[in-house]
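REQUEST FORM: STRUCTURE PREDICTION
Request ID: SP-0412
Submitted by: Lab K.M.
Chain count: 1
Length (residues): 366
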Amino acid sequence: MALICESKTGVALARAAPTGAGVIGGLTPALVVSCPARQFLPRLRDTVHSVSAMGRRYDTISFLTDFGTTDEFVGVVKSVIRDIANHVTVIDLTHEIPAFDIRAGSLALARSISYVASGVVLAVVDPGVGTDRKCVAIEVADGEGVLVGPDNGLLAPAVAMAGGAGRSVVLSNTDFHLVAPGATFAGRDIMGPVAAHLCNGVDLYELGDPVDPALLLPGTVPLPRDEGGALVTEVLWVDRYGNCQLNVGPDEIAHFGDHIRVVVGELTGSTITRVGRRCGNFEQMGTGALGLLTDSYGMIALSVERRSAAEELQIGPSDQVVLEAVEDDNPLVDRGSTPVNSPVNSPVSSPVSSPVSSPVNLRISR
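STATUS: Completed
RESULT:
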């Protein structure tokens, strides 16, 4: 597996991860009995018929999807897990990833991986469900954790953050799946059951055919670039409060000083320019002012105290944000961060798509 680095995000997130967080350890191997595929009426634990190869036994599944909570999807998957492995605690990371948004899911998983409990990570953002795309399980940290999900790039950044891929398999052994009436709910019928069987101690190689991690689909994150002294960045994520996380860390903007010109909307023709101030917390920004602060993941975020920076700047995930130094004689400087409605003459061009491949070997310093 490779991580297509349109970005330094993985490196920045790895630098930001605190020592001791998400240790992924302390697990005890155990011999367990496994369950075959079932029809819908018999209970899974009543159909035990064989003893599986011994593997690690896990107590926690961290669960991330784009299912939402309006429908029964999340509850059904958790019930299937409970029926197979009733000792397991399922932790809901989030089920509010935008529908079909693999990139958003992969970034959320990468942000979370340093903090998740030891065990299995089950991630399902799967617009290709029912097609020939594969479901996979990937060991990380010498088997202290296993990531289960579709082979569509969703898992790659988190695997990188966890130190790279170990043993990996395609989930081809149907003995560990449910019998499905249709092919459009692999979270319930394949990935959820497999996650549960892993927690029971079924060895990874029992679950399917080994696969070279280099052959799995990569993830992508955008790369900031310097153009004429301006830093062209991209919004990675907008949180519930409207804070806009950029794909740059504090070291990459230190040379701009305490005040930075922020230009958005150039690609759409509706340019908004603000002057933001480097801040350590929200209250330092001042009422209505734009701040650039280091967020809880070690990345730079655009923020407005008790208001949504995303709404004020009219930006969202994947939108371009240009950061520039503020000159003392620059007529656009506005220490109060009042919007400037006229376009800014800038040498910045449209983003280019030039991904750079790199091995998934970004080990977190614990």
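NOTES: The radius of gyration is 23 Å.
Reviewed by: T.R.
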